[in-house]
Amino acid sequence: MSRLAAGVVLVTAREAPLAEDGPRGEDAGMTATAFLSVSLDPPLVLVSVRTGSRMDDLLEEQPLWGASLLAESQRHIAGRFAMKGRLSDRLLFQDVPYRRGELTGAPLVRGALAALECRTEQRVAAGDHTLVIGRVLAAEVPHAEGGPLAYYRGRYRRLD
After folding, report:
1. Exposed, middle or buried by CB within 10 Å (0-12, 13-18, 19+), for 90?
2. Based on C-alpha coordinates, what's the Rg of the chain?
3. What phi and psi, each to the nearest 5 degrees, are found at residue 67?
4. Residue 1: strand, helix, or coil
5. Which residues touch 41 (CB under 8 Å, ≥6 apart)?
6. Low pLDDT (below 50) residues in the chain
7. Could you tell me if 92 and 104 are in contact, meaning their C-beta atoms sit under 8 angstroms apart?
8. Residue 89 CB: number of other CB atoms within 10 A?
9. What DSSP state is assigned to residue 34?
10. Can you give the pLDDT at residue 23?
11. pTM flag (> 0.85)
12. What's the pLDDT score for residue 22?
């Protein structure tokens, strides 16, 4: 499957507060290359997350999430959120420019080719992954510079 080129997306969510009047939860993020459009009517997307991962657990509890379609200049962001044995999520977001989604509260990366705000519609167990199907609640396509960040044969690439 390393011969299948894929776009690179940062999937993000914010933990719900433990109590209604308690502090907000932390932000979490995950680099994904298994992300695709499922339907235009209604607008649905799908992301595959490793079962039992932090993002899988979070998206099981928190139905609202975001997806930032990364530009070729954002390779460092993709690499940071794909690290194994990584730092705390708070530190990962520390110098990443983002804004909060108005509908989801999820961090959306500034400079991305597109930003989506989604609500989980369905979760499907598939081997060692969970397929999370989300309804697109809002989409933004800013004037980003450059092309998409791609992943092919185990490396981030540019489309030329």
Report:
1. exposed
2. 15
3. -140, 125
4. coil
5. none
6. none
7. no
8. 21
9. -
10. 60
11. yes
12. 58
- Whether the CB-CB separation of 135 and 143 falls below 8 Å is answered with no
Nearest to 112 by CA among 150, 157, 149: 149
For residue 29, the model assigns a pLDDT of 94
Question: Which tokens belong to 119?
Answer: 């609500």
Distance in angstroms (rounded) separating the CA atoms of residues 73 and 112: 9
- Residue 92 in contact with residue 107, Cβ under 8 Å? no
As a three-state string, the secondary structure of the chain is CCCCCEECEEEEEECCCCCCCCCCCCEEEEEECCEEEEEECCEEEEEEEECCCHHHHHHHHCCEEEEEECEHHHHHHHHHHHCCCCCCHHHHHCCCCEEECCCCCCEEECCCCEEEEEEEEEEEEECCEEEEEEEEEEEECCCCCCCEEEEECCEEEECC
Tokens coding 51: 């079962």
pLDDT of residue 87: 63
Which tokens is 20 given? Answer: 């209604």
- The amino acid sitting at 143 is H
